[in-house]
Amino acid sequence: MKKIFLGALIGLSMCVSVNGSTVSSWNDLMIGTQRAYTITSQNGYETILIISGMITYKEERCDYRTLSAGQTYIISGVGSDGIIDLDIELYGENGNLVTKDVKNDRLPIVTYTPEITQMFKIKAIAYDINDAWKKSYNTYSLLICVQK
Predict the structure, then answer these.
(1) Among 58, 94, 120, 134, whose CB has the most other CB atoms within 10 angstroms?
(2) Interacting residues of 98 by C-beta distance below 8 A, sequence separation 6+
(3) 36 Cβ partners below 8 Å, 6+ apart?
(4) In whole angstroms, what is the distance from residue 82 CA to residue 146 CA?
């Protein structure tokens, strides 16, 4: 897992521009991702996946993952310094929202224990971005952790 984590950080370090648009600082994102990784591992959770990407103002990014019944998952996120408000929403196979984080911050976190094993949609939403970065891409990461 440490190799995947370090690979994600190296990948983030190379994100300086996309289609000629400047990307907000990855250094803050890397520090936040490391902090989330450390906190979850110290509290009996194992990071099973790190999703990183680029996001713009009011944009939604989705990823689909199978979560196992009876396992407790923490999905935490961190946005780069251009992001003011990053949220996470988790949807079941039927399209129903099962949990979400809507705090006005760039460090969302949700905890969920599925009753049945199924495919879930994990949605990251950049609800608010610093005015200086609204027309640019911003980096974000989501960590999916499972209780050991």
Answers:
(1) 120
(2) 90, 91, 92, 112, 120
(3) 76, 77, 78, 107, 143
(4) 29
Looking at residue 59, its amino acid is: E
Q: What are the φ and ψ backbone dihedral angles of 32, each rounded to 5 degrees?
A: -65, -40
Amino acid sitting at position 80: S
pLDDT tens series, the chain, 148 aa? 443 333 333 333 333 333 333 334 445 555 555 665 555 566 677 777 788 888 888 889 999 999 999 999 989 888 888 889 999 999 999 999 999 998 888 889 999 999 999 999 999 999 888 888 788 888 888 888 888 7
- Separation between Cα atoms, residue 45 and residue 31, nearest integer Å: 19
The one-character DSSP state at 23 is B
Angle in degrees, CA 82, 87, 90, rounded to 5:
150
